[in-house]
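Suppose a colleague, Dr. K., hands you the sequence of a protein chain of 274 amino acids and asks what its three-dimensional shape might be. Before reaching for any lab equipment, you can write down a predicted structure in token form. Begin with the sequence itself:
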Amino acid sequence: MDIDILGTLDVREMGVSITPTAAKPRQVLALLALHADRAVTVATLTEELWGRRPPRSARPTLQTYIMHLRELVAGASAAAGGDAGGRGPKQVLRTVPGGYLLDSGEGTSDVREFERLTRTGYRAMDAGDHREAARLLRSALDLWTGPALADVAAGDCLRAETRGLEESRLCALDRRIEADLRLGRHRELIAELTVLVSRHPTHESLCGQLMLALHRSGRRGEALAAYQRLRTTLVHDFGLEPSAVLGKIRQSVLAATEDDTQAPDPAGPLTQVG
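The predicted structure, expressed as tokens, is then:
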């Protein structure tokens, strides 16, 4: 089974899609696919579909959705001219104590591949191999084709899960940009960072990276303007001043001579507000 979540939902058994078009069965499959090879409780599935006040018919309705998904698995097997490698629909989508489990059969998952690449990339970063870290983290980010589960009408559980995935994506992006800065790619990063800062106007790490890229490209005034925009937003929206780390970057830019474009890197991770 092949599972794509980092964009639109697509689950394929033997190369044939088993992704339903109806909204609620799609939610069920999305939650099962996100936790592939792990049990998802009936309570969690019920909360995802109906919130904290499910109808009395919730359990039999959920069973109907599970039956529909198994029919799609059987149809995929028939379309592929096989029997899912010897696995029937009830083996692919198993009933387990208290819930259900989607058995991927050791197939692919873009989420798992993203997690593997980011872990390896972070280790390379920690070891000082910035070129390899940038390569690995770029490969991880390339797996994303849009917001996670972009075409699924998510309930509370899936929304929490997708927020976590988006945070992981932003963290990987932050570390990849850090690696590229350390490789001297500051001019190449300015356009990307300008867009990212406009999307995340209170993200201090991205702002700090933009300031470094601009300063190292000889654009000191623009680097200071980026700091001021962030400070104005933080003070207006949250009553907060920028962090000491970001202040240190600003001071290094102010103290630099016209010919000095090597402002120091932050002495630690920057933080995000909001």
